[in-house]
Amino acid sequence: MSTISTQRRRTVLTLAAGGLLAAQRVSHAQEFPTKTIRVLCGFAPGGPTDVIARIVAADMTLSLGQSVIVENRAGANSLIATQELMRAAPDGYTLIAATLAHNINPILMPDKAKYNPLKDIVPISLAATVPMIAVTGYESPITSLADVIAQAKTKPGAVTYGSAGHGGSAHLAAAALGNLTKTDMTHVPFKGNAPALTEVIGGRVSFMFYPMVGIADQVAAKRLKALAVTTAKRHPDFPNVPTMAELGYPGFEDYSPGIPFLAPAGTPAAIVDKLSAAIRASVAKPETREKLRGLGAVAVGTTPAELGTWLQMDYERWDRLIKAAGVKGE
Q1: Alpha carbon 112 to chain centroid distance?
Q2: pTM surpassing 0.70?
Q3: Buried-exposed string 156-194: b where 16+ CB fall within 10 A, e elsewhere
Q4: What is the pLDDT of residues 37-88, one digit of tens each?
């Protein structure tokens, strides 16, 4: 057999093998899913991320015809869950319902978070965003955000703000306020938003930014006073509470943490598209949107490409804020 004939035969076999592999991938994507899908959550059950993930997972179970379950891997500001995602096979059966921690951990603790938040994952869909609300105890002498800032300027370090820990949304929102107003306020981290809020209610911590989850009930019960919301427009649950923009601090709506669903790098595009469609269908349902609204969340639903763009912008804004405010990791 001539050399040319041999080369042609090898080329034909290579093309045939490639075609077979492509056909297998298409078939696999069409059959997906054939078993339970896990959605990792880096925080404890009952928190905003966990609850939102479970609402979406329940809808996905119905639309995909396979169980989609949430598994909590709490700890290290969601780093434990993220590391488990990085070790998972890129087959669509292990996802994560992430938070701003996904982008922030590599900035604040690069020695521990040894991953690239943009390259080591595949974006699926941004399910929702969770606006924040600034609150103080009902018995507190503070009656407005202006009072907070005035006290912080008069007595540097005397005003305290609570959070669920270093690098969390509550910490960074207050750090952003301090940076904008050139004031020195003292961060008091807790192991969760709930214990931080308890101290605010008790008057032992001056104020905090808190996800809008259950806050309306606390305000109605006269345990808290609402000072400002981070939404672009006034929130329907708090029509008398001004936005940060109204108070002279525009752009805070950009810092509302999101709940993006992510998969390991290398997950086939056809599978990612199928998962993304299921998530978008979930948050488009009126009943699901109402559930999320009741939690204080805003339903979104993006394509993988749209989420990729959002993640890039999100990383850049947090990086700028962390450097400008001098925020340090634990």
Answers
A1: 20
A2: yes
A3: eeebbbbbbbbbbbbbbbbbbbbbbbebebebbbbebbe
A4: 999 999 888 878 899 999 999 999 999 999 999 999 988 888 999 999 999 9
Region 150-161: mean pLDDT is 96
Give pLDDT tens digits for 16-44: 555 554 545 555 567 999 999 999 999 88
Tokens of 22: 């492509």
Nearest residue to 178 via CA among 160, 197, 203: 160
Token couple for 188: 């008091």
Find where tokens 């005397």 sit. Answer: 158
Beta bridge partner(s), residue 225 = 136
Instruction: Give the pair of three-digit tokens for residue 263.
Output: 């998969």
Tokens of 82: 């993220």
Report the distance separating Cα 196 and Cα 198, nearest Å. Answer: 5
Q: 10 Å Cβ neighbour count for 28? A: 15
Q: Which CATH number fits domain 32-130+258-325: 3.90.940.20, 3.40.1190.20, 3.40.449.10, 3.40.190.150?
A: 3.40.190.150
Give the pLDDT confidence score for residue 168 in this predicted structure: 84
Give the separation between CA 177 and CA 134, rounded to whole angstroms. 11
